[in-house]
UniProtKB/TrEMBL annotation, chain B:
<feature type="domain" description="HTH gntR-type">
    <location>
        <begin position="13"/>
        <end position="81"/>
    </location>
</feature>
<dbReference type="InterPro" id="IPR036390">
    <property type="entry name" value="WH_DNA-bd_sf"/>
</dbReference>
<protein>
    <submittedName>
        <fullName>GntR family transcriptional regulator</fullName>
    </submittedName>
</protein>
<dbReference type="InterPro" id="IPR000524">
    <property type="entry name" value="Tscrpt_reg_HTH_GntR"/>
</dbReference>
<keyword id="KW-0804">Transcription</keyword>
<dbReference type="InterPro" id="IPR036388">
    <property type="entry name" value="WH-like_DNA-bd_sf"/>
</dbReference>
<keyword id="KW-0238">DNA-binding</keyword>
<keyword id="KW-0805">Transcription regulation</keyword>
<dbReference type="Pfam" id="PF00392">
    <property type="entry name" value="GntR"/>
</dbReference>
Length: 315, 131
């Protein structure tokens, strides 16, 4: 445990949470999402990310386990006061507001969110170029997303849940969204949980990554501890015989293969531990590179859990 | 403010250490001057594509070394760098560069005399040009 961890308060805690659907179970989920940080929820379609977000809003309820919000379980339902501090951008916008313009929808939402900041809302609509007089139902997917993001932030939430917020956004709007979320985090004591498929979004925004796969939560990592955890190495290898010898000497190597005659490649974790060994074997390293975040996550979802790089101070 | 820090993704050096070393040398070398307001932790993390946990650690370490100070509500600033620190840093930087040059010499079996001769030539050449 790192120094200071004891003081960290949790925004969300899940204990053995299970949601059973016909033919599919999400869980058991065990995770803590700390206050004041951005946690990215990543995983393939159908891995259970949206179900997890729905449970955090009590749009759906788990059959087993316990969820705690800001360190309380609220077994009889989330009180209004707490709901008013949570904002949500759903994966698919709600139909109920389709006939309203952005202005009219704001009037409705303002009623439910006492901390609604109309000035901030209008500033965001302007910045994101959301059409003022169009009905929400008539907007393009991207325009509707922009409205949803602006309206969620205008409620000044303490907990912001974003389900693939950038789908449909053009690159300019995407950049504004990233910067707006960063600034919001800077100026408020907020917590963001964002489900996303966009690696660049994780790279720019996330502090923590939670990886889900087929209804299971594979783990949570501080994003930077994944940095440099896997490498791809190209070495000189004369042929099949040399390849077999290499495989015997480096049992931890994955995807060992002959790239072209004379060159073999493989994946390994913690390359700095094996560099000397490879050198001692008399194998010539041609090139190496660190795997990208998406490659690391993809290996992880195939069962190759990364050994997290120790980010602690060397004490 | 944009801080010129370059992260090497292929380095085995941990991220926070890369950032810390570079930020430190930018401050001690005077590239970022005393009183400069650094980006907020969240902003800097976004620029560097790392987490706020890493940036916070870097700011705290440099604060403990007296290179940065944080004023509640305003942000993190560059402090006064003492002349002693500056001189020590210069020596360190030169020593490191020379050590790696000598290592290259050793690796190609260059003799001590040969290396010293080369060093003298380079010094004369470079310093001569400055006059």
């Amino acid at each position: 445990m790192k120094d200071g961890d004891l003081m960290v308060q949790q925004a969300i805690e899940l204990r053995n949470v299970c949601k059973k659907r016909r033919g599919k179970t999400v869980g058991p989920l065990n995770v803590n999402l700390p206050q004041g940080y951005i946690t990215a929820l990543v995983g393939q379609n159908g891995s259970g990310k949206s179900t997890l977000l729905h449970m955090l809003l009590q749009l759906t309820f788990p059959e087993e386990g316990e969820i705690r919000w800001f360190e309380e379980a609220y077994r009889d339902g989330l009180p209004l006061q707490l709901r008013q501090t949570i904002a949500y951008v759903p994966e698919i916008s709600q139909n109920e507001e389709n006939l309203w313009t952005a202005r009219e929808a704001a009037g409705f939402r303002r009623h439910w969110y006492p901390s609604w900041d109309q000035g901030y809302y209008e500033e965001l609509l302007l910045k994101l170029e959301v059409p003022e007089n169009a009905r929400l139902g008539k907007m393009s997917k991207g325009e509707r997303r922009k409205f949803e993001i602006a309206a969620a932030l205008a409620a000044k939430p303490r907990l912001l849940l974003l389900d693939e917020p950038s789908s449909g956004l053009d690159p300019f709007a995407w950049k504004i969204m990233i910067e707006t979320l960063q600034r919001y985090m800077d100026e408020h004591e907020a917590t963001i949980v964002i489900s996303t498929h966009i690696v660049e979004e994780v790279r720019r925004l996330a502090d923590y990554i939670v990886l889900m796969h087929q209804g299971q939560l594979l783990g949570m990592a501080e994003k930077d501890s994944l940095f440099g955890s896997w490498s791809e190495i190209w070495v000189q290898a004369e042929g099949g015989q040399a390849l077999e010898e290499l495989a015997a000497e480096l049992p931890q190597a994955l995807e060992l293969k002959l790239e072209t005659p004379g060159v073999a490649s493989f994946l390994t974790q913690q390359i700095y531990q094996y560099e000397k060994r490879i050198h001692d074997l008399g194998v010539k390293v041609i090139k190496s590179r660190s795997l990208e975040l998406d490659e690391i996550l993809s290996l992880w979802s195939r069962g190759h859990r990364p050994v997290l790089i120790d980010q602690k101070r060397g004490e | 403010m944009w801080i010129p820090i370059q992260i090497n993704e292929n380095s085995a050096e941990p991220l926070y250490h890369q950032i810390e070393t570079q930020l430190k040398s930018l401050i001690i070398s005077g590239t970022i001057t005393e009183g400069t307001l650094l980006p907020s932790i969240r902003e800097f993390a976004g620029d560097l594509k790392c987490s706020v946990i890493t940036v916070r650690r870097v700011y705290q370490d440099l604060e403990n070394e007296g290179l940065l100070r944080t004023r509640q509500g305003t942000g993190t600033f560059v402090s006064h760098v003492g002349d002693g620190t500056m001189a020590g840093y210069k020596q360190d930087a030169i020593r490191k560069a020379l050590e790696s040059a000598v290592d290259v010499g050793l690796s190609v079996h260059c003799s001590e005399d040969e290396l010293t001769q080369l060093f003298k030539e380079i010094v004369q050449d470079k310093y001569g040009k400055q006059k």
